[in-house]
Design goal:
Blueprint lengths: L9 H7 L2 H13 L2 H8 L3 H15 L4 E4 L2 E4 L1 H28 L4 E7 L7 H12 L3 E7 L2 H9 L5 E5 L9 E7 L3 E6 L12 H5 L3 E3 L5 H12 L9 E2 L3 H9 L4 E5 H9 L3 E3 L11 E6 L6 H19 L6
Parallel strand pairs: 3-4, 3-5, 8-9, 8-10
Antiparallel strand pairs: 1-2, 5-12, 6-12, 7-10, 7-11
Helix pairs in contact: 2-3, 2-4, 2-5, 3-4, 6-12
Length: 323
């Protein structure tokens, strides 16, 4: 009868574990070879093998299965690889924050952002942050929601700000709603429908559109709206979620597009695009902040989030018309 492995105590693990062990663990997971991992870390294969034995002894469980084709992680190894990646990313973040402090900054925040918050919320929050805490440096990383959440889970980001998607790893993250934001229909300045008060669903169905890809939440809402009206749109001129590309196409043709209120008003204030008077009431999930459940909020992140909350409240209260 097999006996369950006995995991050493926390004190024993802390007294034995070194950062080099974690570096080796990640290198082994990537290369699936002790020889290749040793080369990647600039050490000999015997030294890498010794470190691996120390690592498995430290945790009291087999972390990798050896075979002629190389090595592969056990269930224990897979769990430890994930934790090691987070620990090393947190350590890198701490190093970067200390480096920023030595250069006169008081902290560094790594923020994942979605397009919905880039034109308005983030610039306003950064302006307030600079006025109140000029020493905090903010690193912005744009990407898809899933990609940013993965980076957050690995400890490579401190938070993600954008439209909250339900059911995306809720146990691993904490979410905070900032505001709800309706969708506006926009067109070029001077488009025939901009001044019209007779626009309805049938009018919109006859127009050329820039639409999000079919699986995007907004596209699903748009398609459902016209289906409810027993109408169907023509094939879109282009399917795109790129704000820059959409803005250029809108300015040079008579197509329509749907944009979040903040983005639409941003372009309208610049005189680049115009908002149609008729709005079909399309909604999307609220805009919010996502942080890791197992990570403490650093002072720098706390200051940044205070600025984000203040500007989000101002946007919500003013209905996007500005202070």
């Amino acid at each position: 009868m097999a006996t369950e492995p006995r995991i050493p105590t926390i004190r024993q693990i802390r007294s034995r574990l070194r950062v080099r062990h974690l570096d080796l663990l990640l290198a082994l997971d990537v290369t699936r070879s002790v020889h290749k991992a040793a080369t990647q870390l600039g050490m000999t294969q015997p030294a890498a093998s010794k470190l691996l034995v120390e690592l498995e002894t430290t945790f009291g469980v087999p972390l990798f299965i050896r075979s002629r084709r190389g090595i592969s992680p056990t269930v224990y190894g897979q769990a430890l690889v994930h934790k090691a990646a987070v620990l090393l990313a947190d350590l890198d973040g701490a190093r970067s924050e200390l480096d920023a402090m030595t250069r006169g900054a008081s902290g560094r925040v790594r923020v994942g952002v979605l397009q919905a918050v880039l034109p308005v919320l983030i610039p306003r929050a950064l302006t307030q942050l600079r006025e109140q805490s000029a020493g905090v440096t903010v690193m912005l990383q744009e990407g898809s929601y899933d990609a940013l959440l993965n980076s957050l889970a690995r400890g490579e980001l401190d938070c993600v700000i954008g439209r909250l998607m339900v059911g995306k790893g809720q146990a691993a993250f904490q979410t905070e709603v900032l505001y709800d934001e309706p969708i506006h229909i926009v067109a070029r300045v001077g488009h025939p429908l901009v001044r019209s008060s007779r626009v309805n669903a049938a009018t919109l169905a006859r127009q050329s559109w820039i639409l999000p890809p079919p699986q995007a939440p907004l596209r699903e809402r748009i398609d459902a709206y016209f289906a409810e009206q027993n109408l169907s749109l023509m094939d879109p001129v282009v399917e795109s979620v790129s704000l820059l590309a959409n803005e250029v196409l809108l300015r040079h043709s008579d197509v329509l597009a749907a944009m979040p209120r903040g983005v639409a008003l941003h372009y309208a204030r610049l005189g680049v695009l115009a908002i149609l008077k008729f709005q079909p009431g399309w909604t999307l999930p609220p805009v919010g902040v996502v942080t890791r459940s197992d990570a403490e909020i650093s002072p720098s992140l706390h200051v940044f989030l205070q600025a984000v909350r203040a500007e989000a409240a101002a946007l919500d209260q003013s209905d996007g018309r500005g202070k």
